[in-house]
Amino acid sequence: MTMESPTTAAGDELESYLSLGLTVSCSGKDSAEFPKVLLLLSAYLDKKVQENEELLDSSKTKESTTIFHGQRVPELSIKLYAERIFKYAKCSPSCFVLGLIYIERYLQQPNIYMTSFSVHRLLIASVVVAAKFIDDAFFNNAYYGRVGGITTREMNMLELDLLFSLDFRLKVDIETFGSYCLQLEKEALVLVLERPIQVQAANVTKHLICNSSADETCKHELVRERYSSQAVHGCSW
């Protein structure tokens, strides 16, 4: 089930952008606060994951396994994962709204469902694609892989699969973008903001890795980026 696309006035859209924190400045990214869009997006994804898993458990619906399905559910919650991406990837907040649109377009394929096993990879891939499409500057996939806790090869494969599934149609008109922003705010009234995932899988080897060592690597990369003319860092607002 996808979000509705109500017709909205420009004033309402601007107010929504401000409320979601989409107009955060580049310097604001270094603050302790995260834009509201991360909280609402993670809550929305969390709800959809719960609904899909209940549907699959209660019916004979057959789910198709995709490249986004891991063999193990990541220990990191969707909310903390979204915050991690924002903190280290340094992408604009709008990338998360655009990423949500890409995710829902991807999920329109038959028998494809977003579950605890796929939501994290869908999120990192969609945000990375969005950052490369709308931000002034971005990192390479080796770095994004470290941010997302996956290998460079897997990051490359996720990005390509998403792009081909979307038929490389990444442009989103302002009306659609605005409607998603407004709908996220409306969803905030009814969503349970955090649902810890307790699912475990036995005999697994592949999983998202988010540890202190990876964090230090990302931190060093960001420090080097600030003092190197070869590294780029942009803000689209």
TrEMBL record:
<dbReference type="InterPro" id="IPR036915">
    <property type="entry name" value="Cyclin-like_sf"/>
</dbReference>
<dbReference type="GO" id="GO:0019901">
    <property type="term" value="F:protein kinase binding"/>
</dbReference>
<dbReference type="Pfam" id="PF08613">
    <property type="entry name" value="Cyclin"/>
</dbReference>
<keyword id="KW-0132">Cell division</keyword>
<protein>
    <recommendedName>
        <fullName>Cyclin</fullName>
    </recommendedName>
</protein>
<dbReference type="GO" id="GO:0051301">
    <property type="term" value="P:cell division"/>
</dbReference>
<comment type="similarity">
    <text>Belongs to the cyclin family. Cyclin U/P subfamily.</text>
</comment>
<keyword id="KW-0131">Cell cycle</keyword>
<dbReference type="InterPro" id="IPR013922">
    <property type="entry name" value="Cyclin_PHO80-like"/>
</dbReference>
